[in-house]
Write a structure and sequence with these properties.
The structure holds three protein chains of three kinds.
Chain A (H helix, E strand, L loop, with lengths): L1 H9 L1 H26 L3 H20 L4 H22 L4 H22 L6 H7 L7 H20 L1 H9 L1 H6 L4 H23 L1 H18 L3 H26 L3 H31 L10
Helix pairs in contact in A: 1-2, 2-7, 2-10, 2-11, 2-12, 3-4, 3-5, 3-10, 3-11, 4-5, 4-10, 7-10, 10-11, 11-12, 11-13, 12-13
Chain B lengths: L21 E10 L2 E11 L4 E5 L6 H9 L6 E6 L11 E4 L13 H6 L3 H4 L7 H13 L15 H14 L4 E5 L7 H17 L2 E6 L2 H4 L4 E5 L3 E5 L1 H4 L2 H8 E5 L9 E5 L6 E4 L7
Parallel strand pairs in B: 3-7, 3-8, 5-6, 6-7, 10-12
Antiparallel strand pairs in B: 1-2, 1-4, 8-9, 10-11
Helix pairs in contact in B: 4-5, 5-6
Chain C lengths: L1 H20 L19 E4 L2 H11 L4 E4 L14 H9 L2 E4 L9 H9 L3 E4 L28 H17 L7 H20 L8 E4 L5 H7 L2 E5 L12 H14 L3 E4 L5 H11 L2 E4 L11 H16 L1
Parallel strand pairs in C: 1-2, 1-3, 3-4, 5-6, 7-8
Classes of the chains: A mainly alpha, B alpha/beta, C alpha/beta.
Chain lengths: 288, 285, 305
């Protein structure tokens, strides 16, 4: 038990990092569930990278990175909305282009400031090991907000994921709740980039919820699985970073992705076995 | 079924004096300001039924979507449930044609049917025992009570369609709008559907359906024949004659062995002389 | 849908793997002569500075270096073990000016909790980067370690900082300072074979500024703009570099850690300049600062004579 608990018990920074990762995991599981279910993967990714120019610009002029991230996210959401409504391009194409443009813009801004480029590593990969108490407070507030909003909007979100037209007809305007969902994604990304970085927020949004989608039959269960997997990935990632002397943020996401692929493989095997056991001619259950 | 649940709105007054569920005058429907079907005039009273019959592209779905408020009307007036389309969401149930989400979503059948209660419950209302009863009854009437806990994605297309219909039943709506409700249903499912929605009408609801199924439509109070215009509007038996159908659609598949004397399936041919084709085991292909 | 998620995650996993590898390669962090147990612990962020600090303290403290030798400091992220070392150190000796940006936040947290941190660049006469940088550029050049006399200033400032945490090097510091002065003289001598007209440096990124100022070289330009290896190569700036190389008659391009080799080779072919490796951020095999400076001086002298 020693090597599994020791690093955390002996080092406060490890506990802070673990707590930060856990809070990020919970927010990302809730939000990531809808990102995965509604195929918002591209939007989530776009947001994660769209904030980059915002952060870069803000830091250049001496503002806190989070302010810039918020501005960048708003710009991304507005841009995405504009494009999907006005153009004949498919959502995915347009959003993909927007995200590439924003990422490139971020790199351009950063490259204009040479000595600042070193911080790019920190922005992309985060500094979870440098989590302060202020960071924790901010992350806790953000996670709480995400939790509460998702709880309040649980029904419209479910309807939206099931069928946006049904949401409209039922009196829960799909556009409004879609916007709320995007804002929650943006909020999660903006706050989480401090800990795991913008590049890796995407992974924390997708991998745990993706694994949850394979394992769960209900949305609440999917979120619970997602949160659990994210927390486990944080714990294992930090442990590996400690014992094997490797970077923390990247390792955490690696573990989360690894868990997703393990679950994917496992469920595929399980499905094959069940089908084989049932036999090729077995009738499906229930009336057609 | 209706007695246990208390009074339903719209059924308190007799049909003759009750406010109209749908009132359309000079209504043109279409997309982007361009009319697909010009000039629809129709009224639908509570406890009555209207069937829209036509092929794909005839404007059936467009008209339905305009009625439920998903599409703005291009011209004319349309009042639904006493207000603008989409203005009374709690009193409307809609089952559309395309259901894309069933496949990735971790959702059980009962969760889908429960969604039918959401407009009444709003954001915060808890499901009471009456709501649970409604859900159970809706699922039972569509013969899917046993599938309640099954993940939606593991069900067949026909089973899923029954679930979507059960969701509409659970709504206890005053107006039920269905787009091709029997698609994917087997004979048993179709029977249950007909019984369940007849019961809805008896409870006081109005039903508007878009369908290819002539033998169902022929029983309706009103049938509207659509071919990008209103070809005819009237009681089912009057409107759905072989000649009328032939005139409108150009081709008719007639099955002499069908139960019903006139069982037709409607097909459309862009040009060419009207023709009647006999189908069935003895017919030439 | 699953396929898209899977593909995306696979790509992400590859990126993460590379990033994780960038920080420690699994091996416990570098040098530092392990000295007497119970001795005060001094943690140094990168190997070149670590060599000097180890030389200064001898066996009076345990010196641990966080970055393995050969890692690009501009690109490095600490592991959890590294942070533990920092938190438990009696004194942390860092470069400052954003060299170890991956450590910034954690270092600030450690300082808040009372860990003593010494930043070498606080004690050096700073040089600003070459003109032509983005306006509003505030940060100075962190690469002081290529100038033995700047290193001497750091050593003299470090001695009291060490004393404050119970490491007495009052007798050793002057000797080391003298050796650094001699190193400077030796370097000057090595470089004397390079005539004035050929004292032109084109490097991977702007790392040799202090060296150039000290020994009378001119920085003609860099492949990667700016003070870090992580900058993006800009087309216009690259064109300017090429023109400058040809105008000044530069015959050698010095490539460094993190310099994109394809770009360097391309410029080399176009201008006819030779490409020579310059180990400006990495300790040589014997792990001493003297050899580090010596290697750099020899490489430059041989290439430009």
């Amino acid at each position: 038990m020693g090597p599994l608990l020791e690093p955390f018990l002996a080092n406060e920074f490890m506990l802070r990092a673990l707590l930060a990762g856990a809070l990020v995991s919970i927010a990302c599981a809730i939000v990531g569930t809808f990102v995965v279910l509604r195929g918002l993967a591209f939007i989530g990714d776009a947001l994660a990278h769209g904030v980059l120019p915002g952060i870069a610009g803000a830091l250049l002029v001496g503002l806190p990175g989070m302010v810039g991230a918020a501005i960048g996210a708003v710009a991304m959401i507005a841009g995405v909305n504009l494009i999907t409504r006005r153009s004949r391009l498919s959502s995915d194409t347009a959003i993909g282009l927007l995200f590439v443009a924003m990422l490139a813009l971020g790199v351009v801004i950063v490259s204009r400031s040479s000595s600042f480029a070193g911080d790019l590593v920190g922005i992309l990969f985060g500094q979870i090991l440098g989590t302060s108490l202020e960071d924790l407070a901010m992350q806790a507030v953000a996670t709480a907000v995400v939790f509460v909003v998702a709880l309040v909007c649980a029904r419209p979100f479910l309807l939206l994921s099931f069928d946006p037209e049904q949401a409209d007809v039922a009196g829960f305007p799909s556009r409004r709740y879609h916007l709320v969902m995007l804002i929650l994604v943006a909020l999660t990304v903006i706050v989480s980039f401090q800990t795991v970085g913008t590049l890796l927020v995407f992974g924390m949004l997708l991998a745990p919820a993706g694994a949850g989608a394979l394992l769960a039959h209900r949305i609440e269960a999917m979120m619970a699985w997602g949160a659990a997997i994210g927390i486990i990935a944080t714990y294992v990632g930090l442990l590996v970073s400690y014992h094997f002397d490797v970077a923390a943020g990247a390792t955490i996401v690696l573990v989360a992705a690894g868990i997703f692929f393990a679950v994917l493989a496992g469920t595929n095997v399980r499905d094959h076995l069940t089908a084989a056991r049932r036999g090729p001619d077995a009738p499906a259950t229930g009336p057609a | 079924m209706s007695a246990a649940v208390g009074p339903t709105p719209g059924a308190a007054t007799s049909p003759a004096t009750a406010p109209l569920v749908i009132e359309a005058s000079g209504l043109a429907v279409g997309y982007g300001g361009v009319a697909l079907v010009p000039g629809v005039d129709v009224t639908v009273a509570p406890r009555s039924s209207l069937a829209l019959v036509g092929t794909n592209g005839s404007g059936k779905s467009t008209l339905l979507r305009t009625i439920v408020g998903l599409l703005p009307a291009v011209r004319g007036t349309l009042e639904v449930l006493g207000t603008r389309p989409g203005g009374a969401p709690g009193r409307l149930a809609y089952v559309g044609q395309v259901h894309a989400a069933g496949f990735v979503l971790p959702l059980r059948a009962v969760d889908v049917v429960r969604m039918g209660r959401y407009p009444d419950l709003g954001l915060f209302g808890r499901m009471r025992s009456e709501d649970h009863d409604l859900v159970a009854a809706a699922m039972a009437s569509m013969g899917v009570a046993g599938l309640a806990r099954a993940p939606l994605r593991s069900l067949s297309g026909g089973q899923q369609q029954r679930i979507y219909l059960a969701q509409a039943l659970a709504r206890r709506a005053d107006l039920i709008v269905l787009d091709e409700p029997t698609s994917g249903l087997d004979a048993g499912g179709r029977e249950l559907y007909l019984q369940a929605f007849a019961a809805e009408m008896a409870r006081g609801a109005a039903i508007v359906t878009a369908t290819h199924d002539i033998s169902e439509a022929v029983e309706y109070d009103q049938v509207m024949l659509l071919a990008r215009r209103v070809v005819a509007l009237g009681p089912g038996a009057e409107v759905l004659t072989a000649d009328r159908l032939l005139d409108t659609f150009g081709i008719l598949l007639r099955d002499p062995h069908a139960e019903h004397a006139q069982r037709f399936v409607v097909a459309e041919v862009a040009h060419g002389a009207p023709q009647v084709i006999d189908v069935g085991p003895e017919a030439a292909p | 849908m699953r396929l898209r998620i899977g593909a995306g995650l696979l790509g992400l996993a590859v990126v993460a793997l590379l990033a994780a590898g960038c920080s420690g390669d699994g091996a416990p962090s570098g040098g530092g002569a392990a000295q007497a147990p119970g001795a005060p612990s001094v943690v140094v962020t990168y190997p070149v500075l670590g060599a000097v600090v180890a030389d200064l303290v001898g066996d009076r403290a345990t010196v641990t270096v966080l970055m393995p030798n050969g890692v690009d400091p501009h690109d490095w992220s600490p592991s959890a073990k590294d942070i533990e070392r920092v938190e438990k150190a009696d004194l942390v000796v860092a470069n400052g000016l954003g060299l170890e940006s991956g450590l910034d936040k954690a270092l600030a947290e450690a300082e808040k909790r009372g860990v003593a941190v010494f930043r070498a660049t606080d004690h050096v006469t700073l040089r600003q980067p070459s003109p032509g940088e983005a306006p509003g550029e505030a940060a100075a050049d962190p690469h002081f370690w290529v100038d033995p006399l700047a290193m001497r200033d750091v050593v003299l400032a470090l001695a009291p900082a060490l004393a404050a945490v119970g490491v007495d090097v009052a007798d050793r510091a002057p000797a080391l300072a003298t050796r650094l002065t001699e190193l400077d003289a030796a370097t000057r001598a090595t470089l004397s074979v390079v005539p004035e007209a050929r004292r032109l440096l084109v490097t991977g990124h702007e790392s040799m500024g202090y060296f150039a100022d000290r020994y009378g070289f001119r920085l003609v330009g860099t492949v990667v703009p700016g003070l870090t290896s992580q900058g993006e190569v800009a087309a216009g700036q690259l064109a300017d570099l090429r023109a400058a190389i040809e105008a000044a008659g530069v015959k050698v391009i010095f490539t460094e850690i993190g310099t994109p080799s394809s770009v360097v080779e391309a410029i080399g072919k176009e201008t006819g300049a030779a490409v020579v490796q310059l180990p400006s951020h990495t300790l040589p095999a014997d792990g001493t600062y003297a050899s580090f400076i010596g290697q750099i001086a020899t490489a430059i002298a041989t290439a430009l004579r």
